[in-house]
Amino acid sequence: MIRAQFTFPRGFLWGTASAAHQVEGGDALSDWKAWEAEPGRVLGAHTSARACEWLQGRYIEDFDRAAADGHNAQRLSVEWARIEPEPGRWDAAALQFYRAQLLALRARNITPMVTLCHFTQPLWFMERGGWETPACIPLFERYVQKVAAELGDLCSLWCTINEPNAYMFAAYVAGVFPPGRHNLLLAQQVHLNQLRAHAAAYHALHAARPDARVGWAQYLRGFEAARPGFPPDRWAAHWQHQLFNMGWVNAVHSGRFRMLQRSVPVPECRGTCDWLGVNYYTRDLVAFDLRHPLELFGRRQFAPDDVLSEQGFIASHPAGLFRALGEMQKFGWPMFVTENGVEDAPDNMRPAYLLEHLRALWQAVCFNFPVHGYFHWSLVDNFEWERGWTQRFGLYALDVDTQVRTPRSSAKLYAEICRANAISAEIAQRYAPPVAASMFPGAVLAG
User: Fold this and answer.
1) From CA 135, how far away is CA 227, in angstroms rounded?
2) DSSP code of residue 178
3) Using CA atoms, how far apart are residues 336 and 275, in angstroms rounded to an integer?
4) Torsion of CA 9, 416, 306, 230, to 10 degrees
5) What is the DSSP string of 202-238?
6) In angstroms, rounded to a whole number, what is the distance separating the alpha carbons of residues 203 and 141?
């Protein structure tokens, strides 16, 4: 047999990603806990409730699983509403809880990446106007300073805000996240305020910890014209890409933030990026449609021949990951793929999805794109926001009632890749025979 494999650079980080609200469970005085209690906000009236019981200590067994599977990194978040349940009051037990997580990771030789804000905020913060007012900036900065002082000795990789563009859209355009607005102009203001809060956090972290490496996780969704020869489709796809994907990226690079009506100088934001996190799941075809003004007159759809996830939420399009990394590498920042995965409870699609996206990642590395790690979403099934428990992204299946974790085939596949720091033809053939031949056309495959 001809042996063939895609090998990644030495020291490449392999891990999974999680968010505090989605895995911890228990009460926290956050906007999302209140949102879940409102009828109709979450599919099936699901709540995070116990979640994955990390608050009860089950993170220990999950970290053991990650270590046994060859993971050498873990992206996780801390819950602002636990750490600062009231303005200026710090919860020592919450800070100790997060110190224990970081110590547990380090004891297992797993590099932590800590996200400071992953879609949830304290209720008191939202009652003061949240991200809608510039007053949010010093409040977020104060919180970051406290976390850096308490946890900075245990972590050097910091993510200020997760997917600010996705949060802007979900909370202020689609209205499926709290506070449930449908206001494109307000969404742009929130996006700008979060950008300035990111910059304040960046400088606060560096002031507290000179060795800190600070970035953020940007959701990059592919937007392509449904009819490339039709100028209105190209126009809609271009502007969705520019305002959704590129707003923060261009602002941090240039010091100017583009809004719908104007360009705003943000000199304090320029250069506030030690690394860029790329969250990539899928791409859309965009057709010009006057009935979608809040989405810049672009109706999004998947291609007829796309392979779709269990509930049609994600179309597998690995070339989009390569294109996203290619567009981002021109800024010169080191990069991590901070999220990538697919909802697939029966685990029928995930092995091929994982292999093909990792091949696209390997191709990016071969083109000298500065990508230094990959974090799969997620290790264990977790609470998926407004979709509740209806979607399962985990390498490990979770029984929410018993809290039993069961490895899916994808967990074993990913473990083999992590341990080898490579994808071999044999691995692809064992876990996803239909794509093995296209991934390794020169290899002689068994069966």
Assistant:
1) 44
2) T
3) 7
4) -10
5) HHHHHHH-TT-EEEEEEE--EEEESSTT-HHHHHHHH
6) 9
What distance, in Å, lies between the first and last C-alpha atoms of the chain?
12
Number of C-alpha atoms within 13 angstroms, CB side, residue 168? 27
Distance CA 284, CA 266 (A): 30
Tokens at residue 296, please?
């810049």
Give just the sign of the alpha carbon dihedral 71, 77, 82, 83: positive
As given in the structure block, the two tokens for residue 246 are 């590129």
Identify residue 160 by its one-letter amino acid code. T
Q: Is the pLDDT of residue 281 over 70?
A: yes
CB 270 within 8 A of CB 254: yes
Strands 396-398 and 73-77: unpaired
Instruction: With a cut of 90, say whether residue 239 has pLDDT above it.
Output: yes
Count CB neighbours of 198 within 10 A.
28
Higher-scoring residue by pLDDT: 260, 195: 195
| 3-state helix, strand and coil shares in percent for the chain, rounded to the nearest 5 | 45, 20, 40
Torsion, CA 303, CA 309, CA 311, CA 313, rounded to 10: -60
Q: What's the whole-model pTM score?
A: 0.97
